[in-house]
Amino acid sequence: MPTNLGDEIAKVAQLSANVQDAGDRLMEHVTENCPLEVGVLDLGCGSAVFLLDLAAKREGRFLGIDYSEVAVALAANVGRKRGLSQVRFCHADATRLEDLGERFGLVLDKGTFDAYMLGAAASVDRYAASVRAALKPGGVFVITTCNSTADEVAALFTARGFVERDRVPYPTFEFGGRKGAAVATVALVAVFGALREREGRRAPR
After folding, report:
1. From CA 140, how far away is CA 62, in angstroms rounded?
2. How far apart are CA 75 and CA 45, in angstroms?
3. 13-36: per-residue pLDDT in tens?
4. Fewer CB within 10 Å, N- or C-terminus of the chain?
5. What is the pLDDT of residues 41-92, one digit of tens each?
6. pTM above 0.70, yes or no
């Protein structure tokens, strides 16, 4: 049991503040650095708070998908109440994005990859190929993870047809002599054709 309840409450409050800060930083990064005008796809949108906030006061093509039909219905209802008719929602599998039949300039992942990789049949190759199928040439994939470091997630996807563009800076903490962040966000660009072949030749074996 905790020896100091006040300290434990302070830790929980700080964690909550960090989560809110992460969302704010992600929103700032996406709005300032990503191609919103050529279509946005949100993987595992849930109640779609982030996607709807992103679409507010913007024209364009916004699509949120989720494996849960309940989540899709909830998100669509919230979108209607907010009057954001430019945002669509559908029930879909994040590992079969080619079935959507459309491509986007920006694909967002805010924990869906983490959840998917917990499954026994998870395949990074399948996930990466699915995301590439949903991106326009030169499109940006922004992935946020709580289960991997930025270096780890970047290595997974740069080995599978992406190049790293940049990262979202988050506050760090030190524990056991090691410094890190509670969340990591990496922006990657899908590479197609001859450029992908050149990048592949440069990659370490």
Report:
1. 15
2. 8
3. 444 444 457 889 999 999 999 999
4. C
5. 999 999 999 999 999 989 999 999 999 999 999 999 999 999 999 999 999 9
6. yes
Residue with tokens 């370490």: 204
Q: What is the DSSP string of 21-56?
A: HHHHHHHHHHHHHS-GGG-EEEET-TT-HHHHHHHT
Contact (Cβ atoms closer than 8 angstroms) between residue 105 and residue 84: no
Give the residue carrying structure tokens 């709005």. 31
Q: How is the chain classified by DSSP, letter by letter?
A: --S-HHHHHHHHHHHHHHHHHHHHHHHHHHHHHS-GGG-EEEET-TT-HHHHHHHTT--S-EEEEES-HHHHHHHHHHHHHTT-TTEEEEE--TT-GGGG---EEEEEEESHHHHHTTSTT--HHHHHHHHHHHEEEEEEEEEEESSS-HHHHHHHHHTTTEEEEEEE----EEETTEEE-S-EEEEEEE--HHHHHHHHHHS--
CB count within 10 Å of CB 138 equals 13
Average pLDDT over residues 117-128: 96
